[in-house]
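Design a sequence for this backbone.
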C-alpha cells in the first residue's frame, strides 16, 4: 500500500516500499526562481525548479508489533479458571506468561491477586460464562468438584466449549464430566504431577498426564486442545498420555503413598539437625512438599481412588511385618541373655535318642514290651 502526496510538482511519486503493509508518505514543494530582468542581447533563459521532498515520514504503527499481536491472537486462548485457590493461582501465573487471557472465579475474594495477573475476577458464574471462554478449567478441591460442576450455567457457554480438570484423581472427574456436561462439549482430563512447592522453580522434566476423553472431529477443536497442552510442553513438562483408569492405578502407588508417608513423618515430628544425612534430607524435603496440601486433598486421594484402600492396607501389613521381624530378633537375644547355656542343655536332654534304624529309643522299648506280653 502506498500513499504519495505531491504539491505543485510534476515529479513522479516514490516507488512503492518492498515491505508489505509498509506505509510511505512523501511530499514535495516546487519553488521556481524569480525571473531575471530581460536583456536586450541575451536569449530568455529557463531555470529548473528546486524540489524539496520528505521521504519515509513517521509510520502510523509499528509493523513488527502488529505482526506480533496478530500471532498472539492466533495462538492465545480465553481460559476460565473455576477455583482460584492456591493451585489455580499457581497455574494462572504460567498461563499469563504465555499471553492467554484469563477469567477467574472463586467464592473467596481474590480480586487483588487477579489484578496482579491481569485477569478478570468474577463472583458470579453467569457473568463469566457470558464472555464465552474457549476453555473452562476446573481447579477446585476433589470434594467440591461435583457441586461446582452442577452450578455452572452451561446454556450460557458456546456449545463447543472445552472442559479441563486438574484434579489429583482422574476416573472421578471423568465420570462427572460425562454425566453432567452436554454432549457437544469437549473433555480433557489432566493431572500436573507437581504443585506450588515441587514446581516453584521449574517444570522441566515434571510429568503432565492427560487423557483426551472427548474431542470433536472439527480441526479447530483439535487445535484448541493442542494449544492448551502446548502450554505445559513449552514449560518443559514430560507429556504422558494415559487413560484415567491407568492413572489412578499408578497414582495410588505413588502419589497416595507419598502423601501418606509425608503426613506420617510430619506427625512424627522430624526435625533438621547438624548431622543430617542425604537420606534424612530426603525425608525432610518430603514433609516440606506435602505439608502445604490440605487434608481435603489427601482425603480426596483416599476417597475417590478405589486403589488407595489397597495401598493403605499394604502399608499397614508392611509395617506390622517389620515390627514382627524386629521383635522376633529381640526376643531371641533376651532369651539367650536370661537362660544362657542352660536352655540349650535342657533342649538337648529332652530330644529322643535314635537307634541305628532311626527309631527313637523310648518308642523301641515300648514296642519290645508289647511283643513279649
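Sequence:
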Amino acid at each position: 500500500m502506498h500513499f504519495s502526496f505531491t504539491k505543485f510538482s510534476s515529479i513522479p511519486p516514490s516507488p512503492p516500499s518492498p515491505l508489505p503493509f509498509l506505509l510511505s508518505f512523501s511530499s514535495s514543494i516546487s519553488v521556481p526562481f524569480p525571473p531575471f530582468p530581460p536583456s536586450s542581447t541575451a536569449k530568455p533563459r529557463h531555470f529548473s525548479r528546486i524540489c524539496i521532498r520528505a521521504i519515509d515520514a513517521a509510520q502510523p504503527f509499528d509493523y513488527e508489533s502488529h505482526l506480533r499481536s496478530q500471532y498472539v491472537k492466533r495462538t492465545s486462548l480465553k481460559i476460565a479458571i473455576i477455583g482460584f485457590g492456591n493451585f489455580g493461582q499457581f497455574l494462572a501465573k504460567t498461563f499469563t506468561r504465555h499471553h492467554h487471557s484469563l477469567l477467574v472465579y472463586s467464592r473467596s475474594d481474590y480480586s487483588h491477586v487477579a489484578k496482579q495477573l491481569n485477569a478478570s475476577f468474577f463472583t458470579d458464574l453467569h457473568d463469566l460464562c457470558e464472555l464465552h471462554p474457549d476453555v473452562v478449567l476446573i481447579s477446585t478441591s476433589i470434594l467440591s468438584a461435583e457441586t461446582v460442576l452442577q452450578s455452572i450455567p452451561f446454556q450460557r457457554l458456546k456449545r463447543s466449549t472445552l472442559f479441563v480438570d486438574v484434579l489429583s484423581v482422574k476416573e472421578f472427574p471423568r465420570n462427572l464430566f460425562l454425566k453432567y456436561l452436554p454432549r457437544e462439549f469437549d473433555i480433557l482430563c489432566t493431572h500436573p504431577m507437581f504443585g506450588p512447592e515441587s514446581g516453584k522453580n521449574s517444570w522441566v522434566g515434571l510429568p503432565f498426564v492427560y487423557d483426551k476423553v472427548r474431542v470433536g472431529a472439527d480441526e479447530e477443536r483439535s487445535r484448541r486442545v493442542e494449544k492448551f497442552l502446548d502450554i505445559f510442553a513449552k514449560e518443559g513438562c514430560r507429556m504422558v498420555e494415559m487413560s484415567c483408569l491407568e492413572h489412578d492405578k499408578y497414582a495410588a502407588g505413588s502419589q497416595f503413598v507419598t502423601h501418606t508417608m509425608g503426613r506420617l513423618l510430619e506427625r512424627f515430628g522430624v526435625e533438621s539437625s547438624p548431622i543430617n544425612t542425604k537420606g534424612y534430607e530426603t525425608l525432610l524435603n518430603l514433609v516440606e512438599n506435602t505439608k502445604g496440601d490440605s487434608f481435603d486433598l489427601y482425603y480426596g486421594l483416599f476417597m475417590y481412588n478405589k486403589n488407595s484402600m489397597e495401598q493403605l492396607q499394604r502399608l499397614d501389613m508392611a509395617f506390622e511385618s517389620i515390627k514382627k521381624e524386629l521383635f522376633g530378633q529381640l526376643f531371641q537375644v533376651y532369651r539367650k541373655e536370661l537362660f544362657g547355656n542352660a536352655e540349650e542343655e535342657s533342649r538337648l536332654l529332652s530330644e529322643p535318642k535314635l537307634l541305628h534304624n532311626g527309631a527313637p529309643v523310648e518308642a523301641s522299648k515300648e514296642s519290645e514290651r508289647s511283643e513279649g506280653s
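Residues 308-339 form the longest helix (32 residues).
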